[in-house]
């Protein structure tokens, strides 16, 4: 009976869920993946079980039934009746998904530990494939092809991109209860090796689970997202794109079957997986902030620049002397970059309109009112000044002063890097 109790305790749970209760049964598919099936009616547990009934202990631990002298030590009972016997031990108030650090047991950002002795919450998290061993000796050569692929194909040889991604993966196993807030975006030609790493391995804290026949319920959402695409602009371009780590994968390995086979063999035919797991568990994440520490790439910078409003793009071109339709003279750009001079909005609009038509190849027309509003976002309020005895609205601008205003408005210091 002890083994039967353990089986029921480990594989069957009754969830009260606010009075609309149901059973959950744990099942494994052919690949060892665990999934849960909902059983609404206890009568569905209608199989009969032979039970060794030689000795039964009561709640006080004393022998309640002793059949050792009978002809048979076995009785046959329906599983539903056996479940009834252990109903209190398998009843939980609600269900949730609460992943935890296998080394510390911590299951939330407050460093709380999941209480396995409490029946308040049934935890659907079943741990990782590998068990954590504090005495495990890590051999990084066991997954060398894995890390080489990330650095060379994902990161174009950059060590900082490898380091960032390994810390991100370490976060997944050390802090599985907490979203990183970052999203790695991989773009590249089909077959270049964007997805093979995933085969080895945004911002709401909960997710609604809706199942037929039972009330919807919320569980903790600990998912992290990575995007792999054969197409450009797989994410919407924006000025900041703070959450995205944008990588353009190299195409050198397309068709290189031995390269990809070597990566797979490290995990499928050797023990690279358990070494990688313990390596990730050993990485120091103190002070690591996935959103803030993401390495900048040229591809991300170009994507950000493409999302900047056209008037600001034109102002950037003026600062770096990248346009013939410049509001600054050669003297201002070369000798007096810090000396402001008054520039009327009327003159700025004329230069901008010419830039749009001739250089940006964009026929969009701006009225002076619309153009003034766009400028005010970056430059602030304008003022009047007499120009050839005519009072005009404009700004006192210098090349370096304008550069500082644009950087402050966009929160981007890389816009002027070329």
Task: Supply database-style keywords.
13 helices, alpha/beta, Arc Repressor Mutant, subunit A, 418 residues, 3-stranded parallel beta sheet, elongated, 4-stranded mixed beta sheet, 3 domains
Report on the structure:
This protein has 418 residues and is of the alpha/beta class. The chain has three domains: 2-92, no CATH class; 140-299, no CATH class; 308-410, Arc Repressor Mutant, subunit A. The protein is 32% helix and 19% strand. The chain has helices at residues 2-11, 79-85, 144-154, 159-174, 196-200, 257-268, 272-282, 298-306, 310-319, 330-334, 345-358, 368-379, 399-410; strands spanning 12-15, 22-28, 34-39, 48-52, 55-57, 63-66, 74-78, 91-92, 94-96, 121-123, 183-187, 206-209, 217-220, 226-229, 244-248, 341-344, 383-387, 390-397. The relative contact order is 0.09. The mean pLDDT is 84.
For the sheet with most strands, the description reads: 4 strands, mixed
Cα distance spanning the termini: 74 Å
Helix content: 25-40%
* Number of discrete helical segments: 13
Structural class call reads: alpha/beta
Shape type: elongated
Report the count of strand segments: 18
Low-pLDDT parts are none
Count of the domains: 3
Query: Any idea what the radius of gyration is?
Result: 32 Å
Strand order of the largest sheet: 3-2-1-8
Indicate the mean pLDDT: 84
Strand content: 15-25%
In short:
The protein is of the alpha/beta class and 418 residues long. It has 13 helices and 18 strands.
Topology diagram in text:
Layout: H1 2-11, E1 12-15, E2 22-28, E3 34-39, E4 48-52, E5 55-57, E6 63-66, E7 74-78, H2 79-85, E8 91-92, E9 94-96, E10 121-123, H3 144-154, H4 159-174, E11 183-187, H5 196-200, E12 206-209, E13 217-220, E14 226-229, E15 244-248, H6 257-268, H7 272-282, H8 298-306, H9 310-319, H10 330-334, E16 341-344, H11 345-358, H12 368-379, E17 383-387, E18 390-397, H13 399-410
Parallel strand pairs: 1-8, 9-10, 11-14, 11-15
Antiparallel strand pairs: 1-2, 2-3, 4-7, 5-6, 12-13, 16-18, 17-18
């Amino acid at each position: 009976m002890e083994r039967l109790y353990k089986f029921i305790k480990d594989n069957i749970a009754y969830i009260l869920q606010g009075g609309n209760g149901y059973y959950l049964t744990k099942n494994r598919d052919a690949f060892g993946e665990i999934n849960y099936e909902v059983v609404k009616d206890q009568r569905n547990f209608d199989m009969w079980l032979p039970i060794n009934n030689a000795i039964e202990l009561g709640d006080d631990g004393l022998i309640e039934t002793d059949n050792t002298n009978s002809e048979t030590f076995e009785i046959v009972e329906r599983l539903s009746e056996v479940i009834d016997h252990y109903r209190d031990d398998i009843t939980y108030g609600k269900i949730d998904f609460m992943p935890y650090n296998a080394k510390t047991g911590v299951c939330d950002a407050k460093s709380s530990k999941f209480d396995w002795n409490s029946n308040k919450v049934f935890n659907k998290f079943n741990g990782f494939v590998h068990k954590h061993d504090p005495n495990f000796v890590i051999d990084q050569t066991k997954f060398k092809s894995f890390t080489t692929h990330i650095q060379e194909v994902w990161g174009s040889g950059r060590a900082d991109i490898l380091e960032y991604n390994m810390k991100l993966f370490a976060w997944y196993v050390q802090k599985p209860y907490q979203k990183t807030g970052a999203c790695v975006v991989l773009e590249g030609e089909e077959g270049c090796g964007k997805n093979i790493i995933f085969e080895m391995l945004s911002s709401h804290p909960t997710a609604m689970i809706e199942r037929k026949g039972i009330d919807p319920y919320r569980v903790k959402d600990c998912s992290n997202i990575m995007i792999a695409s054969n197409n450009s602009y797989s994410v919407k371009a924006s000025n900041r794109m703070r959450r995205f780590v944008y990588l353009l994968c190299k195409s050198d390995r397309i068709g290189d079957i031995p390269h990809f086979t070597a990566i797979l063999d490290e995990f499928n035919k050797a023990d690279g997986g358990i070494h990688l797991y313990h390596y990730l568990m050993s990485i120091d994440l103190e002070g690591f902030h996935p959103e803030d520490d993401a390495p900048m790439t040229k591809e991300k910078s170009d994507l950000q620049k493409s999302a900047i409003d056209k008037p600001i793009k034109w102002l950037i071109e003026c600062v770096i002397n990248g346009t013939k339709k410049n509001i600054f003279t050669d003297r201002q750009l070369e000798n007096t970059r810090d000396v402001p001079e008054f520039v009327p909005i009327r003159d700025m609009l004329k230069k901008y309109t010419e830039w749009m038509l001739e250089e940006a190849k964009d026929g969009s027309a701006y009225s002076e009112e619309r153009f003034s509003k766009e400028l005010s976002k970056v430059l602030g309020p304008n003022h009047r000044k007499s120009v050839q005895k005519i009072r005009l609205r404009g700004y006192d601008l210098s090349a370096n002063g304008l550069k500082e205003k644009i950087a402050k408005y966009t929160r981007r210091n890389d816009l002027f890097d070329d």
